[in-house]
Amino acid sequence: MIFENTIAYAQKMDDEDILKSFKNRFHIPIKNGNKVIYFCGNSLGLQANSTSQHLEKVLNDWANMGVEGHFMGDDSWATYHLKFQDLICPLLGALPNEIAVMNSLTANLHIMLAAFYRPNNKRFKIITESRNFSSDLYALSSQVELHGLKPEQTIIEIPPSVGSDLYDEEKIIQLIEANKDSLSLVFLSTVNYYTGQKLRVEKIAKAAKAAGAIIGLDLAHAIGNVSIELHKAEVDFAVWCSYKYLNAGPGGVGGLYVHEKHTQKPNLIRPSGWWGNRSEDRFKMNKNFIPSLDANGFQLSNAPVISMAVQLASLQVFQEAGFNNLLYKSQHLTSYLLFLLKEKCIDTSTPFKFKIITPLALDQRGAQVSILVIQDCPSLYELIKKNEFVIDMRANEVLRITPVPLYNTFEEVYQFVEFFKKHAHLIQ
Ligand SMILES: *Cc1c(COP(=O)(O)O)cnc(C)c1O
């Protein structure tokens, strides 16, 4: 990709962008009377304009039909969850029978661990990243304790490479091989929330399989952001939340993926609930649980349709835009951000020194760029926040800047780096 460091070039890129009209399909927040430049879709995606219509439809159906809305109308609630299969699967390389939209990420992780982490005397170890998201680490440790084991003797934490915040995939694979006789589970975040590093999980999944372990993935920062082939890579299970890149609103309904080789086993023990029954049995209230032989067999409760309507609105926008078009734009947009940071900031001498910690290679990152600010990151962050930009800060030292292809532009990227240049100085 060859870019130019001029506003005219950024505007030309926007002109030629086949997705440019999609920005108008979202509500852009207002600050100081102006629309903001929103680079925080990795934390909470923006609201699609069509959201209120989708919500109104559900609310009207409820008002007009009461309980009969479960089975009446074109959007009957008893089958509402089935609408998501065709919308989510292209984002994950999953088969329609391998996904279920339900619960939240952490709740789904507990369900998956209860079903797939079944330690015995021989195989009991778990490999994960030492700096995985807190909630994931809590879920892993507590499940280990529920089995009467000690987390410090069970969970092997992979440290980032020395002098870096990034994980070396070869080291992960070596660790898997070194523990192959006692390994039960490998659980990794596909895109790291802090650095934006995307692991090439396909080869790690292969190593986990060869070691006889289960491979599970957290897709919180991956879904809707990067391409992934869960089925082909034979990933066993995965979980995600929907309020980040999927724009499904605060606390939006998450989801899970289970490879069909597992869902087709009727005797697989799992935490069960009536919504996981075969659809023909779901309302019979039988004493015995007979699972639906797909990912829906992991559902527990009847679907939270009101919240799911919000997600449906956004997923339809994704479908209209085309996921491959979004990925193509995303790669260019974030590459342009990285290009401008280098071009513009390399020679300016100002108080803030920074280092880009996100890997530059296209197959090792998504939309997010993380910048380590060497001193006094909070002051720089406050300065940025006072202006029309929305980004976020982690651990008082890292700024996360995320141009999202659905609603960000090349010109916005240009404007941000212009602002940033005045205040920061790049360290190589
Ligand atoms: C955002 C995020 C979560 C959030 O979990 P919830 O259960 O949805 O609150 C968990 N793990 C990772 C890696 C995340 O990025």
Notes on the protein architecture:
By secondary structure, the protein is α/β, with parallel strands linked by helices. The protein contains 13 helices and 16 strands. The strands form 4 sheets. The chain has a 7-stranded mixed β-sheet with strand order 4-10-9-8-7-5-6, with helices on both faces. The protein has a 5-stranded mixed β-sheet with strand order 14-15-12-11-16. A hairpin with a 2-residue loop joins strand 1 and strand 2 (34-35). Helix 4 (105-116) packs parallel to helix 5 (134-146). The longest helix has 23 residues, at 323-345. Bound molecules: pyridoxal-5'-phosphate. Pyridoxal-5'-phosphate (PLP) is lined by residues 104-106, 133, 135-136, 189, 193, 218, 220-221, 241, 254. The site of pyridoxal-5'-phosphate (PLP) has 13 residues, from helix 4 and helix 5.
Name the bound molecules: pyridoxal-5'-phosphate
The level of helicity is 25-40%
- Share of β-strand residues: 5-15%
Number of helices: 13
Detail the poorly predicted runs.
none
How would you sum up the major sheet?
7 strands, mixed
Oligomer: single chain
Radius of gyration: 23 Å
Strand order of the largest sheet: 4-10-9-8-7-5-6
Distance between the termini: 21 Å
Mean of the pLDDT scores?
95
Helix/strand order, N-terminal first: HEEEHHEHEHHEHEHEEEHHHEEHEEEHE
From the helix content, strand content and strand pairing, which structural class follows? alpha/beta
How many strand elements? 16
So what's the overall shape? globular
Layout of SSEs?
Layout: H1 7-15, E1 30-31, E2 34-35, E3 37-38, H2 51-65, H3 85-92, E4 99-101, H4 105-116, E5 125-129, H5 134-146, H6 151-154, E6 155-158, H7 169-178, E7 183-189, H8 201-210, E8 214-218, E9 237-240, E10 255-258, H9 260-263, H10 305-321, H11 323-345, E11 352-356, E12 369-373, H12 377-386, E13 389-390, E14 392-394, E15 398-401, H13 410-423, E16 424-426
Parallel strand pairs: 3-13, 5-6, 5-7, 7-8, 8-9, 11-16
Antiparallel strand pairs: 1-2, 4-10, 9-10, 11-12, 12-15, 14-15
Helix pairs in contact: 1-13, 2-10, 4-5, 7-8, 11-13
This protein binds pyridoxal-5'-phosphate.
